[in-house]
Every structure is written in structure tokens, then in C-alpha cells.
Amino acid sequence: KAGVTQTPRYLIKTRGQQVTLSCSPISGHRSVSWYQQTPGQGLQFLFEYFSETQRNKGNFPGRFSGRQFSNSRSEMNVSTLELGDSALYLCASSLDRGITDTQYFGPGTRLTVL
Amino acid sequence: DQQVKQNSPSLSVQEGRISILNCDYTNSMFDYFLWYKKYPAEGPTFLISISSIKDKNEDGRFTVFLNKSAKHLSLHIVPSQPGDSAVYFCAASAGNTPLVFGKGTRLSVIA
Fold first, then answer.
1. Which backbone phi and psi does B76 adopt, to 5 degrees?
2. Which of B55, B58, B56, B43 is nearest to B89 (CA)?
3. Is residue A36 helix, strand or coil?
């Protein structure tokens, strides 16, 4: 079974631009969560989508948004990029985000904002 | 306010010895805890979990201990192997809320 895939793997943008990252979950998984990983903050939860609906949202500004398609693939968008948005963005999928459900992570997209 | 804390950014252990990684939490509502391992250029990989109704869970060389009264959990790796060298993240959840991660501990197992 193929794992979680994320595209692109690396991205360089400049301040003020916007970016869209893509995540394809494991086949059959309906929940997709996004995390931001930075050296100083560890992994921080951005949002979770389940059946095309945002089910949970972390404490990030409205510049960060996402969506999920009917095939469970998900995208996240960051508008008006800031230097501090440079990070590894990780996507994780699970069958359903129940309490004992394991999340499987993709390799991440490394975003650098110049 | 950090709800899940891994106070040791790094740990070095000799091959064959025990590695003990620690994690403290502040939210008494957390009832499910997990450990993830992360190699460079890869996403985190689930390692082991424990529910708050247990105080120990074992899987091969990996054992997680939970001390609810102290709000503390630990991951024991015995024996440690060079391939265990990675960053280890502790995570916690309350009900169906999103996982809250610690900042990670970098484990180096020296041959």
C-alpha cells in the first residue's frame, strides 16, 4: 500500500507570495491533518479535514487555509508569505481520527521563504 | 504555554545500553499518548502508544511507561541500536482532539 505523498518536496518563495501544498493520503484514509514543524516549536497542528470538512483547527492566522477533495486528497494554502512561515509542512492521514487511530505521516514539504 | 514538554533536546547512549526518553505534560485531560520517531528527510513514524487506563505498554525493544499522578511518561529502548538514532516526539491527545506534540529529543546511539 502506498504511503502518504506530499508535493512538492521543496519550495522556495519570496515574502508576500502565496503557496499551495498538496497531500495524497493512504488509500482508504479519510482524515488528513496538517502540521508545521520548525526547529524552535516542534510540530504544531494546523488543521484536520475529514470527509471534505474541516473538523479541527489550530492556532494559526487566517493566511493558512486548506481544503479536502472528495477523493480525500488535501491541499493547504498559505497567502502573503512571511519569513517565519519557513518550515517543514507535514501531512498525516488516518482512517478516522478516533482516539486510537494511528496517523501516518508523509515526508513533508520544506518551504523556504526569502 | 507548552502542554507537552520534552526537556532534553538530545541524548547520547552507547549501543546495547538502555535509552530513556522523557516527556512531561500539563493537561490532565490528556488520555492517550504516543511516541513517534523521525529520521532526517522523512515524516514521523508511529512507534508506540499508551492509553491512560494503562501504566505500561510494551512492543519488542520499546516500552512506554505512564505515571498519571506525575503527568510523566517515558520511552525505554532496550537494547539501543545505531538504527535507533533519530528524533523522538512525544504526543498527547484528549478525547478526539488533535495531537499535541513535544519539541522532540534527538537520540544518538553510539556504536
1. -110, 135
2. B43
3. strand
CA-nearest residue to B88 within chain A is A42
Q: pLDDT digit of tens for each residue in chain B (111 aa)?
A: 789 999 999 999 999 999 999 999 999 999 999 999 999 888 999 999 999 999 999 999 999 999 999 999 999 999 999 999 999 999 999 887 888 999 999 999 999
Could you say which of B42, B46, B98 has the minimum Cβ distance to residue A45?
Answer: B98
In chain B, residues with a C-beta closer than 8 Å to the C-beta of A35 are 101
User: In Å, what is the CA distance from B101 to each residue of A24, A68, A83, B34?
Assistant: 23, 23, 23, 9
Per-residue pLDDT of A66-101, as tens digits, reads 999 999 999 999 999 999 999 999 999 998 766 567
Report the chain A residue with the minimal C-alpha distance to residue B93: A99
